[in-house]
């Protein structure tokens, strides 16, 4: 598919601008498209509010090496992006973001990916130091 | 959203028929909408061909208790379904299926969900029997 084609979906327009911004490191620009009271359902649980969303995005972004867009579809209020995300720890991860958009801002993001490869790429925490015998 | 609305996307029409069939146990009916040489990218890896796809679907289906459709979007050749899937082991799992459809059949399905809750719900295999000392 060609995501540079103009879209008639206002929600998809917002989703693509948001995606372009955050994946290229423009976190502030991305967050301008996110509502203050955004709800994000991510594999590790629900985030509520932009103050929780900001570090979630900002801390993850430096790991991103690139992506391959597979599908970008939308209607009036909903947009879905499906892409292969390339990160430093996980070479390729199929990822879906399903956005609800209202008044030009993302009010709900459902983020879907398999955490398993990320968990496997993260070294297990080292054993705590042995208690000193007294 | 109302998924009973008529769709102008031929790919989405096929995806919704397929979804309705397999989630209600009509595996043969679902498989009529899947190409013989289907490719399925699932969290555990790639399946190729309908003979691999059939048991994948048939073995999983009995676990399904229901679903809540969140988004169903499509264009000429692509459809994406995002839904909360309710299964016996995992109460609610955000799931995305991204279909490529050609000539009325699914030729590629990219299935995205987090395996973590499923792994947590599956008892770890018991330890193998100790080797007998000779």
Tell me the Rg of chain A in angstroms: 17 Å
Strand-pairing-aware structural class of chain A:
alpha+beta
Mean pLDDT of chain A: 90
Oligomeric grouping of the chains: homodimer
Task: Give the fraction of residues assigned to helices of chain A.
Answer: 25-40%
Uncertain runs of chain A: 127-134
Can you write the helix and strand succession of chain A as a string? HHEEHEEEEH
How far is the N terminus from the C terminus of chain A? Answer: 67 Å
Strand percentage of chain A lies at: 35-45%
Pair with the biggest interface: A-B, 22 and 22 residues
Biggest sheet, spatial arrangement of strands of chain A = 2-1-6-5-4-3
Report the count of strand segments of chain A: 6
Query: What global shape of chain A is seen?
Result: globular
- The number of distinct helices of chain A, counting runs of at least 4 residues, comes to 4
Main beta sheet strand tally, sense and closure of chain A: 6 strands, mixed
